[in-house]
Design goal:
The complex is a heterodimer of chains A (182) and B (376). Chain A has 182 residues and is of the alpha+beta class. Helix content of chain A is 32%, strand content 24%. Chain A is built from four helices and eight strands. In chain A, strands 1-8-3-6 form a four-stranded antiparallel beta sheet. Chain B has twelve helices and one strand. In chain B, helix 8 packs antiparallel against helix 12. The chains are: A alpha+beta (182), B mainly alpha (376). Chains A and B meet through helix 1, helix 2, strand 1, strand 2 and strand 4 of A and strand 1, helix 2, helix 6, helix 7 and helix 8 of B.
Chain lengths: 182, 376
């Protein structure tokens, strides 16, 4: 955004902001947004550190925000009769909980930090403010969310077919749809 | 990223490294203690916090260009200072001229109004003698209106006696506001980083939602009052009404009052016009100006500034205004509705949040052999 500034004015740039913009640009939910829109989005994020074992959210919590992994690792698990079942793992540069940008239905699994982890949090209220002010954000993100949902549906269909054929059922997580079935 | 389900051992209990409740209590005690010691500065601090809250979206907008917070806030304050200087240069002399004219004309205006009221009363009693029962037994002494106004202005002159203190507050407020605005975001980020993770997805999100709705409402209210005040000044000036700047400022001040704001503005403007011996047609033009402003406000300005997300029952509005008037007079009337709206909306969102937490959520495990819905 401030790339054309002369070198002596470099001190006005916020390096932390630039880092966040870079990370958001690589996140599938925000893919296709211009640098300017990503920059506007980046100032709305909160950052939080989690220790290993800490829950980001628990099953049944109302979904209120999207999480982007800055550093560390997040494991999504679900309690089953067989014990805790790991559904998916998220590493740096990935995002999870994106459906909370659409509604606040309860989370259907628990997200735990497995290593010291830093997350960026985008609350739906902040996201809705941005969307209300710029229809391009709404359009691009809605398209990306539809693409992700289509991926989940296809993955679910494949898994259901496998389950009906006698294989073990595999739950599907946001961001867990393998690229081959998207 | 793995997409293969694996049964894993239960994780160790979360290691929480945030401050304990005792530490939070200690911090609150220190804040209260400092607040008590600095109680003389409560007004400038509260005004500065309010100013910072109003300006924060602009600072965030500048930050959105990838600019450091300190630079954004400094640029914003430079612009704000420029605006204040411009207003002081262009608008303040007109206000001063109108205030001087009003003060020098006050005895004449009061006498005109008093004669008008007394004449009207005499005519009324002559036409309907039964009205006499509702009027004071003893006749009013001459100059009662001027005495009443001077009594009220006596309070104002007491206020002017504290001019030094007011100037000190006015100078301190932007300084405090600068630091609130510059460091407020960092303090919130620090607090969020220290909060228990369980509150991140629930409580903080609710406070963000409250901030969004209340912030939009309060900023919209202020912007709406500014626009309506400017329109009233322009309209009154165009129709040649007396004291357009003062009456415009009064219109802006009472604009947050639902229903009563316009009635008060029209009444005051009409009374001032009558007292200035303006022709009767002038009153019609003044009423027409306020009717047009009301329509513009309802159809265009208020929907664009305040929006329609916040509603209050007319009865609640009326009770709030009455309580506000009883407590703090005109200022209380103006502040009552926004204050009650803020409390009502906060309570509504918190209750909604509690209901959401209590609501049993749909089962997600699915039937045996079926693939459940999406997780997260």
């Amino acid at each position: 955004m401030l790339g054309r500034l002369p070198g002596w004015l470099g001190w006005v740039r916020d390096p932390e902001h630039a880092r966040r913009v870079g990370i958001l640009g690589r996140t599938p939910v925000f893919a296709g947004l211009s640098h300017r829109l990503l920059a506007r989005l980046a100032v709305q994020l909160f950052e939080k550190a989690y220790a290993p074992g800490e829950a980001v959210f628990s099953e049944g919590d109302p979904g209120k925000g999207l999480f982007v992994v800055l550093d560390g690792e997040i494991e999504v698990i679900r309690e089953t009769a067989q014990g805790r079942q790991r559904i998916v793992t998220f590493g740096p540069g990935t995002a999870f909980g994106e459906l909370a940008l659409i509604d606040d239905l309860p989370r259907s699994a628990t997200a735990l930090a497995t290593t010291p982890t830093r997350l960026l949090i985008l609350y739906r209220s902040h996201f809705e403010d941005l969307v209300a002010g710029d229809r391009v954000i709404a359009l691009v993100v809605a398209k990306n969310l539809l693409r992700l949902l289509a991926g989940y549906v296809r993955a679910a269909n494949v898994t259901r077919a496998k389950a009906e054929a006698g294989a073990v059922p595999v739950p599907v997580a946001e961001g867990a749809a393998p690229p081959a079935v998207r | 990223m793995s997409d293969v389900p694996v049964v894993i051992e239960p994780a160790a209990s979360p290691a929480y490294r945030g401050p304990s409740p005792v530490a939070w209590l200690a911090v609150i005690a220190v804040v209260v203690g400092v607040g008590f010691l600095l109680r003389g500065l409560v007004i400038p601090i509260a005004l500065a916090a309010l100013l910072a809250y109003f300006l924060n979206p602009l600072a965030v907008w500048i930050q959105g260009f990838g600019i450091r917070r300190t630079v954004s806030v400094t640029a914003l304050f430079a612009g704000f200072a420029l605006l204040v200087v411009l207003l002081a240069t262009l608008v303040a002399p007109r206000f001063r001229a109108e205030v001087v004219a009003l003060v020098s004309n006050l005895p004449f205006l009061a006498w005109t109004l008093e004669s008008g009221v007394d004449g009207l009363q005499t005519e009324l009693v002559k036409a309907y003698p039964q009205v006499q029962r509702f009027l004071p037994k003893e006749p009013r002494r001459e100059g009662w209106l001027l005495a009443f106004i001077e009594e009220r202005l006596g309070n104002a002159s007491q206020l002017l006696a504290h001019f030094g203190l007011i100037a000190f507050f006015v100078a301190l407020t932007p300084i405090f506001a600068f630091f609130f605005l510059r460091d407020g975001g960092a303090i919130v980020a620090y607090l969020i980083d220290r909060l228990r993770p369980v509150h991140i997805e629930t409580t903080v999100a609710v406070w963000c939602e409250i901030d969004r709705i209340i912030g939009r409402y309060l900023r919209g209210l202020a912007l709406d009052a500014l626009v309506i005040g400017a329109l009233a000044t322009l309209g009154l000036w165009l129709v040649g009404a007396p004291y357009p700047w003062l009456l415009g400022a009064f219109t802006a001040l009472v604009n947050p009052l639902p229903y009563l704001g316009t009635i008060l503005s029209v009444s005051v403007a009409a009374v001032v016009a009558i007292a200035n011996a303006q022709p009767f047609g002038q009153i019609g033009w003044i009423v027409a100006v306020f009717v047009v402003i009301r329509i513009l406000d309802d159809l265009a300005v208020a929907p664009m500034t305040i929006g329609s997300s916040v509603h209050m029952h007319p009865m609640l509005v009326l009770v709030s205004i009455l309580v506000g008037e009883h407590t703090l007079g005109l200022l209380g009337m103006v502040a009552a509705v926004p204050l009650v709206t803020v409390v009502k909306e906060t309570a509504r969102l918190l209750l909604e949040h509690r209901r959401n937490l209590a609501r049993p959520h749909a089962p997600v495990a699915g039937r045996a052999g079926r693939v459940p819905g999406y997780v997260c």
